[in-house]
Design brief:
Layout lengths: L5 E5 L5 E4 L18 H4 L7 H20 L3 H9 L2 H20 L1 H4 L6 E8 L8 E8 L4 E8 H57 L17 H111 L4 H21 L1 H30 L7 E3 L1 H11 L8 E6 L5 E3 L1 H19 L6 E8 L3 E8 L6 H4 L19 H11 L3 E7 L3 E9 L12
Parallel strand pairs: 7-9
Antiparallel strand pairs: 1-2, 1-5, 3-4, 4-5, 6-8, 9-10, 10-12, 11-12
């Protein structure tokens, strides 16, 4: 119709062989009955000049292309053509079509037309403005010309735009729904199930309930989540499989640990017994070295106590005489005694009383008794100190002033250090928790060593000082002896190391002293200069969590 445009079908010679509107566009010559040329059909409308020029150019290019590519086989085909019927141009078109069909890539698209060019037509014989589209049909190289009015194209475009918008909106809605469905049922739901299963498996693993992992199965599939779930299932199976092996290994390890622990406990027990024996041996050796000194310390007060008692015995004879006279006077009262006899007894009583008063027997007896008591106290204290020192099982922890330990140690080692000048400087220190017996053992050992080191000097001197800071109490034991070399100083705490002669020491004193200080959470250090002397410093913490169980002996 006039409002819908028209279509012209041209052969390869640009003859119109069909028209969609033959009433308007007649394409048959009424005289000859043959198709009219395109120029004749459009009545040589100037608006069609661009289209006509394009058609002519296309026709010439096709003929030239085919002619240039003619092969011997094609030459043979051309010789067989009835040029009287087809014409030269048609022959070339047929050859070109044969070559086109010979191309395997084009066989399946042989019936597909393709747009060659579009033209904007100004006002022509039929429309105020229109668009002409030239298509090519491959198997014949015919041309299909479609003429569409601009008004109709605009209407179609508007309609297409509206439809396109509606279709886009519908597509977006459908896409959103599909995405939601896919995310919900293909992603979110499987992901949530997977995360829930992972949490369940994690709890079982944390609780070491590996045997229940077989109850946790992840849904497998061919998508990404399903593949991941399959890998997780394999992992859980391996964990459960390996757990049995690990359980057996752990059981064997526990048995071995128990056996080794029992062995270590037995070894530790033997070690503690050995340490106890070493401490006992060292104590006994120290006591053996001090036997002579202890005997002297005991014999001295014991001797003057004995002398005092003998003097007291002699002095009591005068009191006995006075008592006899008094008893005689008492007996006279019951007899018929003469006055002379009574007077004589009274005179003897007065005489004996005067003698006692003149000799000041009461004061002398008091002094003798006092001296004797002092001697007894010295003996008692010495015995007590020796007993405390010699207690092999003494490990009781007490809170004391270190001065008490030092004074007791000085008395125990009194005979060993009697030839040295003893200087003490006791600064006030806080009380500490310690085992007095063990600290005494360390101090006695240091005092004996100091006495031996300075014994060769006529002016030998031993100094004992105490000091403290916020954390520790310190005891310094110094001597002005011969000192030690750096090599000896580095070995003094090694077991069985000694600089004394054969039979003079076990070589365990300093090693045991260091062990005792370590058990008290303290320390022992030495500073020495050859020819000048040595100073040992004991460090004992003020705030100490020491317990009796932490001590060896």
């Amino acid at each position: 119709s006039s409002g819908s445009g028209y279509i012209l079908l041209l052969d390869n010679s640009d003859k119109v062989i069909a028209s969609s509107n033959p009433e308007r566009l007649s394409y048959i010559d009424e005289a000859t009955g043959t198709p009219l040329d395109i120029k004749q059909v459009i009545n040589a409308d100037p608006a069609w000049n661009p289209v006509l020029n394009f058609l002519e150019t296309q026709r010439n290019e096709t003929i030239e292309r085919v002619a240039a590519s003619v092969s011997p086989q094609v030459q043979q085909v051309l010789t067989t053509l009835d040029k009287a019927e087809t014409g030269t141009s048609k022959g070339y078109y047929l050859v070109n079509y044969a070559a086109y069909l010979n191309n395997g890539e084009n066989k399946q698209n042989a019936m597909d037309s393709r747009l060659l060019q579009s033209f904007e037509l100004a006002k022509d014989s039929y429309y105020n403005g229109s668009q002409a589209y030239v298509f090519e049909i491959p198997e014949t190289y015919w041309k299909l010309i479609v003429v569409q009015p601009d008004a109709e194209i605009n209407a179609i475009a508007d309609n297409l735009s509206r439809n396109l918008i509606n279709w886009i909106a519908l597509a977006l809605l459908i896409t959103a729904g599909l995405i939601y469905f896919m995310l919900t049922y293909l992603a979110f739901k499987p992901l949530k199930e997977t995360t829930d299963k992972i949490s369940q498996a994690e709890n079982l693993i944390n609780d070491k309930q590996y045997n229940k992992l077989s109850e946790v199965k992840f849904a497998e599939g061919r998508n990404e989540i399903g593949l991941v779930n399959g890998s997780i299932n394999d992992l859980l199976d391996r964990i459960q499989s390996n757990e049995g092996k690990l359980a057996n290994i752990n059981q064997q390890l526990e048995i071995k640990v128990e056996e080794r622990t029992a062995e270590l406990q037995e070894t530790l027990k033997e070690l503690k017994n050995s340490q106890l024996q070493l401490i006992r041996s060292e104590k006994m050796a120290t006591l053996g070295q001090m036997v002579a000194g202890v005997a002297h310390e005991v014999n001295t007060p014991l001797s003057y106590v004995q002398n005092n008692l003998e003097i007291i015995g002699q002095l009591t004879e005068q009191y006995e005489e006075l008592i006899e006279l008094v008893q005689g006077l008492k007996a006279v009262k019951t007899d018929a005694a003469t006055d002379g006899k009574i007077d004589k007894l009274l005179a003897d009583i007065v005489r004996a009383s005067d003698e006692i008063q003149e000799d000041d027997l009461s004061t002398e007896l008091k002094e003798l008794i006092k001296d004797s008591l002092f001697g007894v106290e010295q003996i008692t204290e010495m015995v007590l100190n020796l007993r405390n020192f010699a207690r092999l099982d003494e490990s009781k922890v007490k809170t004391i002033d270190v001065r008490e330990c030092i004074e007791a140690s000085l008395k125990i080692a009194g005979n060993s250090i009697r030839n040295q000048e003893i200087v003490t400087d006791f600064a006030p220190t806080p009380e500490i928790k310690c085992s007095p017996s063990q600290i005494n053992q360390v101090l006695v050992n240091l005092l004996n060593n100091a006495a031996q080191a300075s014994g060769e000097k006529p002016d030998g001197k031993i100094e004992v000082r105490t000091r403290s800071d916020e954390r520790n109490v310190y005891i310094d034991v110094s001597d002005n002896g011969k000192g030690m070399s750096a090599e000896v100083l580095n070995q003094i705490f090694e077991p069985f190391f000694t600089t004394k002669g054969a039979g003079e020491g076990t070589g365990l004193g300093m090693a045991i002293s260091q062990q005792i200080m370590e058990q008290h959470n303290g320390d022992i250090k030495a500073v020495s200069t050859e020819g000048v002397g040595t100073t040992f410093t004991l460090t004992l913490p003020i705030d100490n969590d020491l317990t009796e169980q932490s001590l060896v002996a």
